[in-house]
Write a structure and sequence with these properties.
Elements lengths: L15 E2 L2 H8 L10 E4 L7 H4 L6 E5 L2 H10 L7 E3 L7 H4 L5 E4 L6 H10 L6 E7 H8 L9 H7 L2 E9 L4 E2 L6 E8 L9 H12 L6 H4 L25 H12 L2
Parallel strand pairs: 2-3, 2-5, 3-4
Antiparallel strand pairs: 1-8, 6-9, 7-9
Helix pairs in contact: 8-10
């Protein structure tokens, strides 16, 4: 159940979920047949946590808010020894999980993109990540090339994960209601084991291109083509970044590096 015993803190981007049916659907975004342990980010008062505890997976939660930690400790005895009071973005996840694990949460809107970039750092340890974010962020993550929402985070995450936009969530299921709609997404690790190009250059190409997304690749990537100016005549440089797929960006990176 949801009890308003803790006042949501604006500084932490807290919007407590109060609709149990939505919480159930979020929990069900994780595969039920997986034996991998689960890490919940930002459990708050445990509205999602209670349904995760009903599942067979071993659950650990990470919560920055001291009031929420105290509440969870009191009301969820099953979490004894499984509550980490810390900032998820600063955690060494490899020291917590020796093998693979899944990630889920009703993610704080103010750090949701940073959470996914953190997941990307541990892509070989996190085969599934699901949760609720601002609808606009979910659309960016799941967007296909050619759409306005398609951008840096779309390409960098889709290089390693298949991303599904599962369902939309209205503001009235939260306390306090956010000013935007939300959505639940699921990231599932794809079969890619390597990018077949220089990964750091790949990230630089993607970020440089989208930082000037209205320009053609020829103009936005000038700084990366200083030593390979002859490449600018290639047809791909007539396109804008949102027109390029992950595979296009990989091919472009190989072209620029000469490898």
């Amino acid at each position: 159940m949801y009890h308003r015993s803790i006042r949501p803190k604006k500084s932490l981007g807290q919007h407590f979920l109060k609709d149990l049916s939505v919480a159930t659907r979020i929990a069900n975004a994780l595969p039920a047949d997986s034996a991998l342990p689960v890490l919940e980010i930002g459990p708050g008062q445990g509205v999602l946590t209670q349904f995760l505890l009903e599942r067979p997976q071993n659950l650990t939660v990470v919560e920055l808010d001291r009031d929420s930690v105290a509440y969870l400790s009191t009301h969820f005895p099953a979490l004894q020894g499984k509550i980490i009071e810390a900032d998820f973005l600063k955690l060494d996840l490899g020291s917590i999980f020796s093998g693979q694990f899944m990630v889920i949460g009703n993610y704080p809107y103010n750090i949701s993109s940073q959470i996914f970039f953190k997941v990307l750092e541990y892509k070989d340890k996190i085969p599934v990540c699901a949760g609720m974010v601002q609808k606009e962020v979910a659309e960016r993550l799941a967007s296909a090339p050619g759409r306005k929402a398609y951008g840096i985070i779309s390409v960098l995450l889709q290089a390693w994960y298949d991303i599904e936009y599962l369902f939309t969530v209205e503001p009235d299921v939260f306390d306090p209601p956010p000013k935007v709609r939300s959505a639940v997404i699921r990231l599932t690790r794809n079969s890619r084991t390597a990018l077949d190009c220089d990964e750091s250059l790949f990230r630089a190409v993607v970020k440089t291109a989208f930082n000037q997304r209205r320009k053609t690749m020829r103009n936005s990537l000038k700084s990366l083509l200083e030593d390979r100016r002859e490449l600018a005549a290639e047809p791909i440089f007539n396109k804008r970044p949102e027109q390029l797929s992950v595979e296009d960006f990989i091919g472009l990176t190989k072209m620029i590096s000469g490898k």
